[in-house]
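Hey,
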Amino acid sequence: MTDRVLILGGRGRIGSSVAQDLATHTEAQITITGRSAEIGKSVSLSSGGQVQFLVLDLAEVDKLREAIANSNLVIHCAGPFHYRDTNVLESCIAQGVNYVDVSDHRSYTSKALNYHEQAAAAGVTAIINTGIFPGISNSMVRQGVEQFDEPEKIHLSYLVSGSGGAGITVMRTTFLGLQYPFEAWLNGKWEIVKPYSHREIVKFPPPYKRTGVYWFDMPETFTLPKSFPSVKTVITKFGSVPDFYNHLTWIAAHVFPKWLMQRRYMIEFLSYVSHTMTDVTNNFSGIGVAVRSEVTGQKNGKTAIYCSNLVHENTAVASGCGTGSIAQLLLEGKLNKPGVFAVEEALPTDLFEDTMQSRGITIHQNWS
């Protein structure tokens, strides 16, 4: 019997990349949803699979439940997740359907993790924070942590060129991440950090080289300390290319009045202006992504550093690979872990490495 996958928000850049990945690597029947019928026709893909379209607003609770009931797996790509409740996850648990999402904000992650016991009791595997960052980045950290006798510090740096090919939603996510200070795990205690602060120059692989990154509120800032209790410091920093976008974002975070940045209309205005700008700069910056994971710890009685790097030419496609690979493993029965988990808790390193290799994604590692 053919597996049926429901991708909520599947017409967006991330959702469509997930659909393409699944169509390439599985035989699943894929249904993508959107709020209007602008692209309502089925799309045949080269793999021989077929993607169908369903008009669905998440507020249509009965229609949503019916769509979930007719699926073997639900993939939630309808961001930004700052605005989302857990209705989709709850419905999946109630109907015994496995769940994956591309959530990228601590407020949603915290709410989703509260349903761990219910999901476990229902035999539902729910894996959150998949994609590229969070997602592949978290698995790169796990890969590094496992090299040590006692891991002590995690430093994650992300870099996106222009829009990343991910559409207006990624712009909203960036500006929403500037609204409030957040907690970070530093030297064994929680400390308050200001968003887009403490610029740090990090050396990324070509074509990026040395580039500035800043503190950014990501779910892995608090899921990684939980997943790896011996770690005393977790740093998550983000930057943009070209570099002048970093300075504009810093101004939005530190110069604009806080009350203004906490208004939805301001987020929309900044998002559309930024997206218009990247339509121009994408032509020379590209839309790629770089992830750098650096883990410090004790190995054979000595302090060592394990660094891993990933570069991909298209941020949205990379995100599709991260989410699609986990969906593939669930559909094939290779990943079965009832409960709600951040990706680094759910995905073993050997499976992560296998799926990345099958997608032609290379992660370069070195000791220092």
